[in-house]
Design goal:
The complex is a heterotrimer. Chain A is mainly alpha-helical. Chain A is 63% helix and 1% strand. Chain A starts with 35 loop residues before the first helix and ends in a 48-residue tail after the last strand. Chain A contains 16 helices and two strands. Chain C has one domain: Four Helix Bundle (Hemerythrin (Met), subunit A). Chain C contains seven helices and no strands. In chain C, helix 1 runs parallel beside helix 7 and helix 3 runs antiparallel to helix 4. The N terminus of chain C is likely disordered. The chains are: A mainly alpha, B mainly alpha, C mainly alpha. Chains in contact: A-B, A-C, B-C. At the A-B interface, helix 5, helix 7, helix 8, helix 9 and helix 11 of A face helix 3 of B.
């Protein structure tokens, strides 16, 4: 933003002295009274908190992947009896709980939001640093409770991650403790949202009006509002499930006058906006990455900014499209279907704007760009299948089939997951001061891409053919599809291994990265890689829009 | 809530030190409430509570209308005076406004189901 | 890079930011209780007659008393904050003491009320309750959940205000630094607002 031709742009040599090219200690060095692990888990530095989230969420992601691989394996007849049907129910439940509550929801905002938000707005930290660390403690506490729930009481829950009543009230598995863990996790999400909203309102650098702010903070702002408004509804719903199981208050139990559909309403009032918590930061990260590798400003800055707010707003109005076959009123069904069609519009606006950003840009092809383009492709498939499901006639046919499973993996994994990979490739040099092997990042890609589509496109087909979700058994007619999907999952696993091995090796032995390896123009690139603890030597004064590149100096968008 | 770090003076609301000497408890530089304002508001709240009880006794329908009309007024008085919203700027008012609109929408959409079953 | 407006590295206080953060937290509390209000609205629309009948069984006198108790505690809380902003420390402490005392009175009333209801067999899982029509069972389920969650918040509030009273007494909260007390007051007032809605829902339904 305030970077002009004075700064060497594009890959540049390290500045200053020292092994990572710094003239002083970075946030990675322990300068206080504590050292090692203790220094990290008591640090209120937003960068350290972001890294703590990174390591913990990726650990849970890895476990979730293993569970997913096992679920796929068991669908092949030689391996079918490795697990029992009961265990299979627990597998898909825990896979969902881990992935959703311990990776995707707490993924991008606390990892990249925490690390990058203050840097991108020219601040030294978030508004409430101690609350930030507390958010991570809540996250780990909730995660620990969920893990304990898997091995105590009646064993891991078998209800699906959606914990639908009446089964979740009757099952002997440890639903009570598991939902209590999810309840605690909710605090982490809410506190992060509060922190980010306050940070964006109060800590922007001098000269950075709202429309000079980069679009990742805009996305985080919209996400944070959803976290603040929707998460409490989940919290109370989970409390009600616990109370029902423990003392039988009767609110969901038809024998006592309760209504299971009420549970679904309350559950989805949070859980649908939750998917926008998952995707908005991902879209925001992509919106940062594309301009850098197109060497030109984003097309339609204000449209993207406002579409983030629109997605957050309209996304809160569509929850009952998960309930079309539940027994609710015809009027509600029609209303929610209509609203679901509307919510696709702001997402589509973003896809058009991203494409237009690349058009006539000066493309610098790098690994983050490859994964960002993959995001656009996979997310589009996911989004379009979502619109299909929003149509009532289609929904009656595909509800609770593999079509739904394929859809949400396209948006959550192909979307948020690949955006996470892309963001990691983009910001890794900044976060750790080291560069990974670009070639290895490229090598991982075909495994990931082919494996992903083999696995999840097949699911779309299987679903249309009638394969129900959450079923231990399947009819012989679906055999081929399952084999293809499972083999795809193996390719995907190989790709993930290569991808993350690359980064792990780079973390410890990668070549030192310069402050600005990609020639980015937002403020995080104006400080060292990795950043000093205080982020900036002096807080910058912002005098122009966020995406002015020297190749196109007259395109100061200024929110135009 | 712990005090956040701040290094920008781009908003006039970042410090409260300057007004204390004038005896005006100004959070945002405006005149604040007096002791008697609060006591008066309390009086109105008690009166409204009495009204609510009376209305509820005259029938079930009246009870529901009383609930839907009088109670929000009581809540609004607490928000506006005790919680200081009357004296706050547009940002805080908008923040609460967003929450209220969200609630109204949740109720309305929920009722789109149960009202038509 | 243009760094004309260099800002010192030490942290400023940001009282408005603290208040904004507190309001955002209060919004999460509002939404938390709203989930229960949504459930209540849903169930009342389903069982209007049963809710009407069960509401008539509740002790309206206790309900109204508790309302007056909390309204008065909001007054004393507000006066305490005004006092500290004027530098009148002993008045602030008096206001806080009254607030805490009234909070305890509220909880005492609630305990008395719950004991009475349990004594009559109106509690989830009781044999008596199972004989009532389903709508009334749901009414009581919601009653205990909503007043219970509210009572928990009152308890947390009392604890928090006690801590703040100590800080006022020690001078850590004073005329110059009192946004923490203001924020505590905001929490207390919200607890009052929730009760303002609970009163007609459970005690004045008949």
């Amino acid at each position: 933003m305030t970077l002009t031709a004075r700064e060497p742009l594009g890959p540049s040599g390290p500045s200053g002295s020292g092994p990572l090219g710094l003239s002083g200690p970075s946030y990675l060095d322990d300068i206080g009274p504590r050292h090692g692990l203790l220094a990290w888990i008591t640090s209120t530095d937003h960068k350290r908190v972001g890294v703590l989230y990174l390591y913990s969420t990726l650990t849970f992601f890895a476990v979730g992947v293993l569970l997913g691989l096992l679920m796929r394996l068991v669908q092949l007849s030689p391996f079918h009896h490795l697990v029992t049907a009961q265990t299979y129910n627990a597998l898909f439940t825990v896979h969902g709980v881990l992935m959703i509550f311990l990776f995707v929801i707490p993924g991008l905002p606390p990892v990249f939001g925490n690390f990058m938000l203050p840097l991108m707005i020219g601040a030294r930290d978030v508004a409430f640093p101690r609350l930030n660390l507390a958010s991570w403690y809540f996250f780990m506490g909730g995660a620990l409770i969920v893990l304990v729930a898997l091995f105590t009481g009646g064993g891991p829950p078998d209800t699906g991650w959606t914990f639908y009543v009446p089964f979740s009230l009757k099952t002997g598995t440890n639903v009570t403790l598991a939902v209590f863990g999810a309840f605690i996790l909710g605090f982490s999400s809410m506190l992060t949202g509060i922190n980010f909203i306050t940070t964006i309102h109060r800590l922007r650098a001098p000269g950075m009006g709202w429309f000079r702010m980069p679009l990742f903070p805009w996305a985080l702002y919209a996400t944070s509002w959803i976290q603040v408004l929707a998460t409490p509804i989940l919290a109370i719903t989970l409390v009600l499930v616990m109370l029902e199981r423990l003392v039988g208050i009767g609110i969901f139990d038809p024998a006592k006058g309760g209504d299971p559909i009420l549970y679904q309403h309350l559950f989805w009032t949070y859980s649908h906006p939750a998917v926008y918590i998952m995707i908005l930061p991902a879209m925001g990260a992509i919106t940062e990455i594309l301009p850098t590798f197109a060497r030109r400003t984003v097309f339609g800055y204000k449209a993207i900014a406002f579409s983030s707010i629109a997605i957050a707003g309209v996304g809160s109005l569509v929850w009952a499209h998960h309930m079309f076959t539940s027994g609710m009123s015809q009027f509600a069904i029609m209303l929610f279907s209509l609203l679901t069609m509307v919510v696709a519009v702001p997402s589509a606006i973003k896809v058009f704007n991203w494409t237009a950003t690349l058009y006539k840009g000066s493309i610098d092809f790098q690994p983050p760009l490859l994964y960002a383009l993959t995001f656009i492709f996979l997310f589009s498939i996911g989004g379009l299948t979502g619109v299909m499901q929003g149509a009532l006639a289609v929904n009656v046919h595909v509800h609770d089939t593999y079509f739904i499973v394929g859809h949400f993996h396209y948006v959550m994994f192909g979307g948020t997951g690949f955006a996470f990979f892309s963001a990691l490739l983009y910001w890794f040099p900044k976060m750790f001061g080291r560069m990974y092997s670009r070639r290895t990042a490229y090598v991982a890609w075909p495994f990931l891409f082919v494996g992903f589509n083999m696995l999840y496109f097949t699911m779309l087909v299987l679903g249309l053919q009638g394969m129900p979700r959450r079923y231990y058994n399947h009819l012989a007619v679906f055999n081929t599809g399952h084999v293809v999907a499972t083999v795809g999952s193996w390719f995907l696993a190989v790709g993930l291994l290569i991808f993350f091995a690359n980064l792990v090796r780079a973390r410890f032995r990668g070549a030192p990265a310069p402050a600005n390896p990609w020639g980015g123009v937002t403020l995080e690139w104006a400080t060292s890689s990795p950043p000093i603890t205080e982020n900036f030597e002096t807080i910058p004064l912002v005098t122009q829009g966020p995406y002015v590149f020297p190749e196109f100096p007259d395109s100061d968008e200024e929110g135009a | 809530m712990s005090e956040p770090t701040s290094q920008s003076s781009q908003s006039s609301q970042s410090s409260q030190l300057s007004h204390a000497s004038q005896g005006v408890p100004a959070a945002s530089g405006h005149a604040g409430p007096e002791y008697r304002t609060f006591i008066a508001v309390w009086g109105v709240l008690v009166a409204l509570t009495a009204l609510l009880v009376l209305v509820s006794r005259s029938g079930q329908n009246a009870a529901v209308w009383g609930l839907l009309l009088i109670t929000p007024v009581k809540a609004a008085l607490v928000f506006y005076f005790f919680m200081h919203l009357r004296y706050e700027g547009l940002l805080l008012k908008t923040v609460i406004g967003v929450a209220l609109v969200t609630l109204i929408i949740f109720f309305a959409l929920l009722f789109s189901d149960i009202a038509f079953r | 890079m243009n760094q004309a407006a260099a800002t010192p590295a030490h942290a400023h206080r940001d009282d408005f930011g603290a208040k904004l953060g507190m309001w955002l937290f209060l919004i999460t509390e509002m939404l938390l209780f709203s989930g229960l209000f949504l459930a209540y609205a849903y169930m009342r629309a389903r069982y209007p007659a049963e809710f009407h009948h069960a509401g008539g069984e509740m002790n309206a006198v206790l309900g109204v008393t508790n309302t007056l108790v909390l309204l008065t505690s909001s007054l004393s809380m507000g006066l305490a904050i005004l006092a500290i902003q004027r530098g009148e420390r002993s008045r602030a402490l008096l206001g806080l003491a009254v607030t805490i005392l009234l909070g305890l009175v509220f909880l005492g009333n609630k305990a008395f009320e719950w004991t009475a209801e349990i004594h009559h067999g109106n509690y989830p899982g009781s044999k008596h309750l199972a004989t009532l029509p389903p709508g009334e069972q749901v009414f009581f389920g919601l009653y205990y959940t909503m007043t219970g969650l509210h009572g928990l918040h009152v308890l947390v509030g009392i604890t928090m205000l006690t801590v703040m009273a100590v800080l006022v007494a020690r001078g850590r909260i004073n005329q110059d630094r009192n946004v923490m007390l203001e924020n505590g007051g905001l929490y207390w007032h919200l607890v009052d607002v929730v009760w303002i809605f609970l009163l007609p829902l459970f005690y004045l339904a008949a």
